[in-house]
Amino acid sequence: MGKKHTTEKSEAPPIKPLSDAKYKSDLRSLQIELVKLQRSIIKKGLKYLVIFEGRDCAGKDGTIKRMTEHMSPRETRVVALPKPSDTERRSWYFQRYVPHLPAEGEVVIFNRSWYNRAGVEPVMGFCTDKQHEEFLNNVPRFEDMLRQSGIQLVKYYLDITRDEQRKRLDDRVNDPLKHWKTSPIDRVAAKKWDDYSKYRDQMFIRTHHAIAPWYVVRADDKRVARINLLKHFMNIAKYPNKDKTLARPDPLIVFPFSEVHINMGLIAH
After folding, report:
1. In angstroms, how far is CA 175 from the centroid of its own chain?
2. pLDDT tens, 181-204?
3. Could you say which architecture CATH assigns to the domain 20-263?
């Protein structure tokens, strides 16, 4: 898994919440920027692939909903694959994801991705140690192939604390409008916290590379996470007439992975 973190961990700085007015104003402005970006993507025939990963209840669904709310439905696809079929289990691991990759002019968002094999699968015993190791060895090369084919690949990991996950899991159970979100895996998510942390850190260390870096989003406050993730996405994207003042995320909320951030307390353990 790489070297152990022996430095004493610091406590993460608190997240300052947004007022309702500020949140709504920033969200609208950022959604306008997304429309501008998508026009450029369509005009230039670019291919964008955005991966969302994170623990159960990290806020992936809500962030994706706000991101795509005003984007063109013809050129935007959200992919959330079910568990693999028997045939898919016998096939090349990446094969089931390839048909969903973006064509020219498209934005595709993966709500969970091939990184299931870096987290939930080894934690839950859905893959062997050999399959897990093969994945960690192969995924940087696979992603390099995607980039060479012209796909703009962006990887976000929404990170929440143990207490926040427990609160959100309880909320899912008690809110009848959120029952559809519950799954058998949810019930063991909190019990497997340390295992998820171990495999997540290993994933970061082995698959964070220059071609496709990981960006970590502190997501205990859903609204702050959404706004800063969208600001970051605008910041790294290239398109005309960008509002550069708006596209400035808080570097203590969204940042590229580094082992230093673990010891700073910016990544939950």
Report:
1. 25
2. 777 777 787 899 999 999 999 999
3. 3-Layer(aba) Sandwich (3.40)
